[in-house]
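Input sequence (237 aa), recorded before submission:
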Amino acid sequence: MNELMLHCGTNRLDRNELSNIYTPAGTPSWRPVSHYDAANRVVNEAVKRGYRIDDEQWGVNTIGTKMFGVIRCHPEGHPEYSRAIGVRNSNDKSLALGLVAGARIIVCDNLCFGGEVKLARKHTAKIDVEWFITYSFDVLQTSGFAKLERGIERLKTTPLTIDQARILIVQSAESGAIPSSDIIPVLEEFVEPRHDAFAEHNCWSLYNAFTELAKKYSPARADICYRKLSEQFNLAA
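Predicted structure, token format:
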């Protein structure tokens, strides 16, 4: 199960239950997209393109203004991970509607995301949700997943000393990817990982040390963490 984006501080809902979340009326310059509509359109587009959806999870923050979801598909892919699509939306102007290419790391149930920068659309009066989702899938399909998976392979082949890891972890805290209180826990996870698959010290092991700790974050905090890590590890499209 993909649980990182839907961990603490979240009300878990199935897709149909998202229809019960209130959507503001909007203004002449701002047109909010309902969480239910956004989720349905993403799933329908995935099905239309022949994606075999193995799992989908949806959640909202406690007041229902932010929605996060993960759709997992293509389990026949790389044996170490399957493809995932991350979805986010808000009805309070705090987040743009966005999709992001992802990978579910089988060994530890972590998520790796990249490519979000190009796949976000503000809720302006001119937003065309159907066009945006179609376009986003085009990008995910032609370059998003490919770039992310190439990036993962690059991280696996980039060795990293403990001293180098220390520097990168501090830099991630300075960028806001993680709170400073998690600097030592991330380093400890890198030095002595709980999963044998990450025993070799390289950039991929460090990335997974971050994501292991990020499981405790709220959806909104995890979203910030992944966007910052995507930039730091050059996984952004």
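Checked by second reader. Strands lie at 11-13, 53-60, 66-73, 81-90, 97-105, 110-114, 120-121.
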